[in-house]
Amino acid sequence: AEKMTALLGQQVIVENKGGGNTIIGMDAVVKSKPDGHTLLLGTTTLATNAALGLKQPFEPLKDFQMISTIADIPDMIAINNDIPAKTYTQFVEWVGKQKEKVRFSCSGIGNQPHLWGELFKTRNKLNMEVVGYKGSADALRDTMGGHVQAVCDVVLPTGVHVKAGRLTGIVVASAERSPICPDVPTVGELGMKDLESAVFYGVAGPAGIPRPVVERLNQLCLEVIKDPAVKAKFAELGFFTTGSTPEAYLEKLKFETERWTKVVRDNNIKVEG
């Protein structure tokens, strides 16, 4: 917003509208005038809310005009240091030897890192079950304390605890290693490129924005995220900047919606809402 303000020469105001698993904020944008002056910083919930079957007063793939993806923060898995495993392979072997289910924590049932954890579990045929918490801090605390054996969350703050030696990182779900925890291998390096996954952010507006306005906003978004200072700030927070055409963003949302819908169905995941 700060960079876009400078490029536009007019103030870009950030209005936080939390609640309803982001549905309240999204609904406000859907109902706004489609002139390009009211935008959404959308996240993965554009896909996962639909996958979970949550009631929404709009259809994300039809009622939004996608502008551009902005940044991804990849998922990762870290394990308690007392587990006799220090690598992905050793962890998979260790889980296979346990008589009872190994527990992994997440920052919320039904959120994207949880769904990816279920996908990872299925892909590797692991006898694991999730323990949901209300936030990353509690999930990380109980994993470090040994109450659960592993945690599935995004690289920040998880990677910070890995780098500090409080947890052992076994895999990051990005195409390249994260600077937050550079010693942890990627899914691609471990032969699971199809498991690349991240909580992703992008800019969208209500359907019906004139095409010239969409193209102008897309140009602004791409210019912002190419700025070295912006890229550096995102990197500090664990994000990889992305950027895309409106059409590519829509295709990404379609793919993610289908992907997580299958995970929800296959694992019988239910959340309130």
What does this 3D model show about the protein?
- 41% of the residues lie in helices and 18% in strands.
- The chain has eleven helices and eight strands.
- It has helices at residues 2-8, 23-30, 45-51, 60-63, 88-97, 112-123, 136-144, 155-163, 211-226, 228-236, 246-267; strands at 40-42, 64-79, 102-106, 128-132, 150-154, 168-172, 198-206, 240-241.
- Strands 1, 2, 3, 4, 5, 6, 7 and 8 form an eight-stranded mixed sheet that branches.
Number of helices: 11
Task: Please give the alpha-carbon distance between the first and last residues.
Answer: 31 Å
Number of strands: 8
**Broad shape:** globular
Radius of gyration: 19 Å
Strands, helices and their partners?
Elements: H1 2-8, H2 23-30, E1 40-42, H3 45-51, H4 60-63, E2 64-79, H5 88-97, E3 102-106, H6 112-123, E4 128-132, H7 136-144, E5 150-154, H8 155-163, E6 168-172, E7 198-206, H9 211-226, H10 228-236, E8 240-241, H11 246-267
Parallel strand pairs: 3-4, 3-5
Antiparallel strand pairs: 1-7, 2-5, 2-6, 2-7, 2-8
Helix pairs in contact: 3-11, 6-11
